[in-house]
Structure formats: C-alpha cells, structure tokens
Amino acid sequence: MRVVDIRERSIDISRYRDSSILSGGLTTSIVALTTDVVRNGRPVVGYGFSSMGRFAQSGLIRERFAPRLLAAGDVDPLGAWAAMMKGEKPGGHGERCVAVGTLDMALWDAAAKVEGLPLHRLLRQRFGGDASAPADVEAYASGGYLYPDNDLLRLADEMRVLRDLGYRRVKIKIGAAPLAQDLKRIEVALKAFPEPGSVAVDAMNTCDATQGRLAAAALSPLNLMWFEDICDPLDFETQAAIAALYGKPIAAGEALFSAAEARLLDSHGGLRRDRDILVFDPVHCYGLPGYLQIIEALEVRGWSRRAFWPHGGHLFCLHVVSAFDLGGAEVNPLSFPPFGGLADGMSVAEGRVTPPDAPGIGFEGKAALAALFGTL
Ligand code: MG
Question: What pTM, to 2 d.p., does this model score?
C-alpha cells in the first residue's frame, strides 16, 4: 500500500455534549490518507484524528511527518511508522508523538480496509492474538467535566444518561474545583453508580503534594474504581508519596508518551503492579507501534496487560483493547462529539462493548464523524 495524498485540518472540540460550552480552545487534527489500493472501484482512504486532550498537530503533520510518509513508497503501517520516524532523535517527545500517532491511526484504518477486516481482527491476525476469542471488552463511561454553571444538577443528569445507556462504571473529573465541591460531585456520581468500585476520579494532573495528600485522605474511604492523573506527570516524587498513603488503585501514564518514560514511572512513581492502572493513550504515544513498545517494556517488568486501560474513549482504542486483551476501554459517550463514544446503533450490554464489525476502524458507522472526515 502506497500513500498518495494526505489532508489534515484542525477542528475545535468540546469536552461537553453541548459543544457550545467552551473548552479552552481545545482542538484536534483530522487526517484523510488516500492510498493507491482500489476496492469497489475507489481508492482506499484511511481516517484518523489526534485523540482527545492534546490539541491539533497541523504544523508537525504537514511539515515533517506527512512528507516523509508520502515519500516512503510501498509500506504497511509498521514500515510507515519507521519511515515517519527516520532522522528523529531519541527523547524530546513533546507532541511530535501525537502527530505521528494521528497518521498511524489513519494508516491502520486504511490497512484494515484493504484487508476487508475490522481493525481488531487485523491486529489479532497480525500480532498473533487468538482469532476465536470474543471481541467484546469491559468498558466504562468517561465524562463528568466541571460545568460552568449548575454543575451538580447537570452532572447528575449526565450520570443518569450514562447509566441509562448501559454503563456500569463511570469516571468523572476532579481538580478543577475546591476539594469540598469535588466531594459533592463524587457523591452525585456515586448516587447513579452505587456499586463499590464503580466510580473513578481523574484529577487531570492538577494536584501539588499538599493537595494530593488531602485528596487522597478524603477519597480513601470511598471505594473508588481508581484515582487518576494525580499530579504533574513527571513529578514522580509526589506520585510515589501519594501511592504510599493511598491504598486503593491509582491510574497514571496518560501524559507520558514513550517506553523510556513508562520505565521511569514504573521505577519511581510508587505504582503497585497488583492493583494500579496504566492509562497511556495509544494515539498520543506515537501510535500503535509506540504503544506496543510501552506494553512490552512494562510486561517485562512484571505488569499484566490487564492493567492497561488506554485513554481516548473512541473507536480506535476500543479495537486496540479488544485485539490485545487489555484490561478495558474508556468510552466518551457524550464528551468530545463527534469523536468520542461508539458507532451509531452500537450498545452497551452490562458494561461491555464490542468494536464495530465493518472493515477498518468503523468511523463510517458514525454519521456525524464520517461527514466531518468527508470534508477533507
Ligand atoms: Mg486522565
């Protein structure tokens, strides 16, 4: 497969179902990558985007990585990745990892369409997974961002909608409001999801050492699913100090992007392999090849694949969780429209979801997203 054309555009995205609520100028890149392979009389086109939370990567994609990919000749996604990374020095991951991951997503979409397979099937074939294993995975609904007004009422409404959709576990955000208000927000979530271990909280890397300690003490009795992104991602000292006094599961890794950083987290972050959760985002970690390096680096050190619950909350990550038998999938049913959540008509059965069966990632089964990619 040869990539013959690449289009990219920056798109505004919102953390809220009501996308008129501003999200600090947050953007993502969408890309369409046309190949020289023809199926049903038309060239195969792969689509991708920069996942959520780390802004569009227009300059890096257009000036650096797209030209290398266009010049690479015949490639599969792994060869394409090597071509894109040619000449890059080790370290300094910055956000070039997101630019590469965006193109990587589109490459896998195209490769699976070329084979006529849903991505999770292609990945199982390609990486020696059990082809007969069921494709469905454990999932939780993610959302619960602080509303600019009427926060608790709107949060309660959001929790009810997620419960009605069939989710049995949920993650909400804390850290953007004082701890006392965050505890009220958690109470709201616990009302809709009362089973022990059903509510996770994500502090979005906002706590300093003191705030982290206070939050950990307040959260300890609540039986949460996990406490995520506590402090600055590279502040391993605070991370380890909190882990030493918070006995329940902690989730970390969302804002780390390489196998080298993952090893540092494991060595210095105080994480416990018997209970803690790893939320590296496959798209933000240079795409699937980089993500697989992280899994390998940590499996060698005794981590289970079941500890990996990748950040993202969209269809690409759902295929990855299914194909590699990871712990479970984040789903953003309401946040980040039209990128988050499942394809149209897909449903949740007792907290489990199955990736789409259409060839590729299945973006075409999500009308609003397909229309957006169509504009490229
Ligand atoms: Mg997070």
Answer: 0.97
